[in-house]
Amino acid sequence: MKHFIGVLVLLAVVSLAGCMPGKLFVEHDYSYEGHFKNYESFNFLECEYIDSTLLCSDIQEAIRHQMEARGYKVANRAPNLLISYNIFRNDLRFRGYQQPVIKDWVVSEDGDATYKRIDYNLDEGTLMISLIDADTYQVIWKGYASRVTRNPNFKNNYFKGIVRSIFDQYPLLASARK
What we know:
single chain, alpha/beta, six-stranded mixed beta sheet, two-stranded antiparallel sheet, 8 strands, globular
């Protein structure tokens, strides 16, 4: 009888696992042109292509929290970084890059580092966050998570964990210039 109950429990777990949405795919890449040691402030560009202002504010608040946790300050005048974010509702072909770990590269700033192109086929519901150098308007870091809209019941704070997963790829802290 114990064996039979064990088999039933195992079947139930396997059945439930099949109904759960796929695991998030999270990745990032960055530009060797970024001056990561000099950034200390940020502000947001307008929310684009997201059909709900609640969704915009939820995502923006999660990003603000991650940036402030890394020591960056919101600046209404002359921020070092501009932040853009977007949710792509459909599948997306995207070009990423295999690179040295960003934290290691910032220490060495290896001028001989190369980009190895990787083409991704990202599933519907990709959240992309871009950090843009405010002086050059060049994207210096981009983090993205695919399959974020697979959960049909997302509510307030749903994106908090997703944004944190993306920013786990950005371990840098704001500069400590005085």
